[in-house]
Amino acid sequence: MTTTTNDVRLPVLTPGVWFQGLFSGSVIAALFWGWQHRHDDLLSAEEGLGYMLGIIGGSLMLALLLYPLRKRLRFMQRWLPVAWWFRLHMIFGVLGPVLILFHANFGLGSLNSQVALFCMLLVAGSGLVGRYIYRRIHMGLYGHRASFNELGMQLDQILAAIPEEARRVQFAQSYEHLRQALIPRLGAHGKLFKVLFAVPRATLWRWKMLWTTFRHRRELDAPTRREIRRTTRKLAQLTIKLAQLDLFSRLFHWWHIVHLPFFIMMIITALVHVYVVHTY
Question: pTM for the whole thing?
């Protein structure tokens, strides 16, 4: 399938983006409210709504297993697309800890409660780290896994579409210096120093080109200036992704190895907590 420059999409305010913003804002507001009222004894972990929040939150954390099971068990592969399960995985991974925090009334409680709570927070924190790494090696949050070849093709096609008038600001020559400095050869590992400074260096190049374009504004018409602004943004984003792709791919591999023991530890401590609470 031919890749076109339209494959490089800039962030837009789609319904999904609106939902993410509304969801994140609601969670932050709820956590802030709960923390402010933690001493008001509005909920009890032993009974009523507080008890139910613990059951629901724990069930959501256990339901996180559905996403990896959907990818590995053959009979589940006909149950909705993987992207839907991943969305539920992300939502449950946020709502579960939030509900359990309200169940605990933002307090520590007994020793077994503390261990279970800290294990849950460790899994939640690890999940946030994994989400950050995941976005760096995929085409968006719910897109497919990015490849060096695919991103390189997109990069070449963007460069081929640069307006002829952009030669006046030496656009192609300026970007080629950035490209050689940051993007490793196919199959080669990028140097850590270059990877760490990919974002500031690409951003600095972008602002330099915008300033150069502004200085030559009398020589360039308005459509060309707009196209240069769009192109510099796309190139900066793609260059950063290409420079960091190998490092984040390796980090994602190691994250999987670390995250699974955290999750197993959380399940064990949660079961112990439930047993102790209902036995003693």
Answer: 0.74
The token pair that represents 255 in the structure block: 């994250």
What are the start-end ranges of the H helices in 38-147?
A: 48-62, 66-72, 82-103, 111-137
In DSSP notation, 192-219 reads HHHHHTHHHHHHHHHHHHHHHHHHTTTT
Please give the pLDDT value at position 24.
Answer: 85
pLDDT score of 6: 42
Distance between CA 105 and CA 99 in Å, rounded? 10
Angle formed by the axes of helices 82-103 and 111-137, to 10°?
150
Helices 222-279 and 48-62: angle between axes, nearest 10 degrees: 120
Determine contact, residues 179/239, Cβ cutoff 8 Å. yes
CA–CA separation, 154 and 160 (whole Å): 10
Token duo for residue 185: 């050869």
Helix (H, G, I), strand (E, B) or coil at 47: strand
For residues 95 and 72, what is the distance between their CA atoms, to the nearest angstrom?
Answer: 24
Strand partners, 47: 44
The ranges of the chain with pLDDT < 50 are 1-11, 187-188
For residue 184, the one-letter residue type is: P
Look at residue 142 in the predicted model and tell me its pLDDT.
62
For position 140, what pLDDT does the model report? 67
Burial 220-243 (b: 16+ CB within 10 A, else e): beeebbebbeebbebbbbbbbbbb
* Predicted pLDDT of residue 184: 66
Are 136 and 244 in contact by the 8 Å Cβ rule? The answer is yes
- CA proximity to 97, closest of 30, 164, 175, 194: 30
Residue 276, amino acid: V
Which residues does 131 contact at the CB level (< 8 Å), separation at least 6? Answer: 90, 141
